[in-house]
Design brief:
alpha+beta; 150 residues; Alpha-Beta Plaits; four-stranded antiparallel sheet; 37% helix
Length: 150
């Protein structure tokens, strides 16, 4: 095959360091737009970005030339620097060290988009930790609680 073609859809989740509620409604739309720009620079298409005060969910199509780890590293690094430039209240902003990433089939895109859009409503009743545990269980990802939270 002469041409390289790929469509790899990834649902990415990561939180603020210590789950500090730093992503308020005044900065959230601009942060998500900035993250979409970072993804575009990595030749990856943002399909949906959402979250809550202490974490973010990203559904994207992974570019052919970037690994999941490199994409997330750049996304977190760039967005952390960007948000710190938004004023003194964000000066001590950091993302957590780790992340979760799940492969999504094309048939699961609509449900995943809806799930991401409804984050603020969901988190009125469910903590980020409980949500992440449920996602890890759903995708059958083995984990050790001692090393998940920072």
């Amino acid at each position: 095959m002469a041409q390289s073609l790929a469509k790899i859809l990834v649902h990415i989740v990561f939180s603020t360091k210590g789950r500090v509620p730093s992503i308020n409604l005044s900065i959230e739309p601009e942060l998500h737009a900035y993250m979409a720009t970072v993804l575009r620079r990595l030749e990856s298409l943002a399909l949906e970005i959402g979250g809550s005060d202490d974490h973010v969910h990203v559904l994207c199509s992974l570019g052919r030339k970037v690994s999941v780890a490199d994409l997330i590293k750049e996304l977190k690094h760039s967005s952390s620097g960007w948000i710190k430039s938004k004023g003194g209240e964000y000066r001590s902003f950091y993302w957590q060290g780790g992340y979760a990433a799940f492969s999504i089939g094309e048939s699961g895109v609509a449900a995943c988009r809806t799930y991401i859009r409804n984050q603020r409503v969901r988190h009125r009743k469910v903590s980020f930790q409980d949500e992440l545990r449920a996602l890890l269980s759903r995708y059958r990802v083995e984990f050790d609680e001692r090393y998940v939270w920072d």
